[in-house]
Specification:
There is one protein chain. The protein is of the alpha/beta class and about 350 residues long. It has a single domain, classed as Alpha-Beta Barrel (TIM Barrel), CATH 3.20.20. About 40% of the residues lie in helices and about 15% in strands. The chain contains eleven helices and twelve strands. It has an eight-stranded parallel β-sheet with strand order 2-1-12-11-8-5-4-3, with helices on both faces. A hairpin with a 5-residue loop joins strand 9 and strand 10. Helix 3 packs parallel to helix 4. The longest helix has 19 residues. The N and C termini lie far apart (about 60 Å).
């Protein structure tokens, strides 16, 4: 056989029993979830900033980062809601490279999913304990949600997963906002069809169960740029792109809560991480220029860590990305404070 069974993974219930959310943390999450949901429904005009490392590879550095973030949150709480980006499982373009803490709790050691499940749950809980901020994570595997359903306040479906039926159906049963990224081709219709699937009711199979979902009205779009036929980055954060998405939403009148989060990195920056502050400021300018864009854009995503840039696995620099390069803390803090002033 070409598929080798290594070990049986513990159930979500078993992992949750090992690392439970206490009553205080449950209350924090309930309050945060309600506050974030109001942004998508239009009840709040606060702006979401989903910010943090490309991949959360080290608990000490991640909790250090989110603790710093909590201090900024207090300063900007009237304008911004900061959502730590704690991405523990990473899709890779060609399948190679570090796939996140879920795969490798220690990036320099072999994959171990059992220890990975424990590590990511512990890290998320420790981060909430220290910072009071509940986080966002990416859904690389649709079965992941069962292990994190009581922890996360935001879920992203990546550009390579957005057409996957399992991800779409799982999103329909999630009770926090789920962002559907445009595919690497940049096709808006694919992204909007994913939102329709996420907002609809379904019966499907997951984790060995037949289940029903109620539909998730907070499913929305994420613009992350695309690649043209020559493999060159093509951004979609400009004013014209945002207007085009507003017009595209009008072709899907059954979609609830039209919304977009704009990713300032990836193909929008051409992976030039230092361009993220300029891109964010352009998005805010477009919002001031058009009421339609202002209503549509609910926030931004920023790849940020303690140190600028990136390093190879085992590079030894504390708080520096081992995947895509990120904006360092000093620049990130300055950007968040500037955003609060501009809004």
């Amino acid at each position: 056989m070409s598929l080798h069974y290594i070990s049986e993974v513990p159930s979500a219930e078993e992992i949750k029993e090992l690392f439970p959310m206490n009553k205080e943390l449950v209350k924090i999450k309930e309050e945060r979830d309600a506050e974030i949901a109001k942004v998508f429904t239009g009840e709040s005009d606060k702006f979401l900033v989903i910010i943090g490392p490309c991949s959360a590879d080290n608990e000490e550095a991640v909790v250090d980062y989110t603790t710093r973030l909590s201090k900024v949150q207090e300063k900007v709480k009237d304008k911004l809601i900061l959502i730590p980006r704690i991405y523990t499982n990473k899709p890779r373009t060609n399948g190679s490279g570090y796939k996140g803490m879920l795969h490798q709790p220690n990036p320099e050691e072999k994959p171990n999913f059992i220890e990975g499940l424990k590590a990511i749950r512990k890290m998320h809980i420790d981060s909430i304990n220290e910072s009071g901020l509940t986080a966002a994570d990416e859904m690389l595997y649709s079965d992941n949600w069962n292990y994190m359903s009581d922890i996360l306040s935001y879920v992203a479906v990546g550009a390579r997963s957005v057409e996957n039926q399992s991800h779409r159906l799982t999103a329909s049963g999630i009770d926090v906002p789920v962002g559907m990224k445009n595919p690497t081709s940049g096709d808006y219709t694919v992204m909007l069809n994913s939102c329709i699937a996420g907002q609809s009711k379904h019966t499907f199979m997951t984790s060995g169960w037949e289940v029903k979902s109620d539909g998730n009205p907070l499913t929305h779009c994420i613009l992350r740029g695309s690649l043209n036929r020559y493999g060159v980055s093509s951004p979609n954060y400009h004013y014209e792109d945002l207007i085009r998405l507003h017009e595209a939403y009008e072709q899907f009148p059954n979609l609830k809560n039209p919304a977009v989060i704009v990713d300032a990195n990836h193909n929008n920056s051409g992976k030039k991480w230092e361009q993220q502050p300029r891109i964010v400021k352009e998005i805010l300018h477009s919002m001031r220029h058009s009421e339609d864009v202002n209503k549509l854009v609910k926030g931004v995503m920023i790849e940020s860590y303690i140190e600028d840039g990136n390093q190879p696995v085992g590079g030894g620099c504390y708080g520096q990305s081992i995947t895509d390069p990120c904006l360092g803390w000093d620049k990130s803090e300055r950007l968040m404070l500037e955003m609060a002033e501009l809004l």
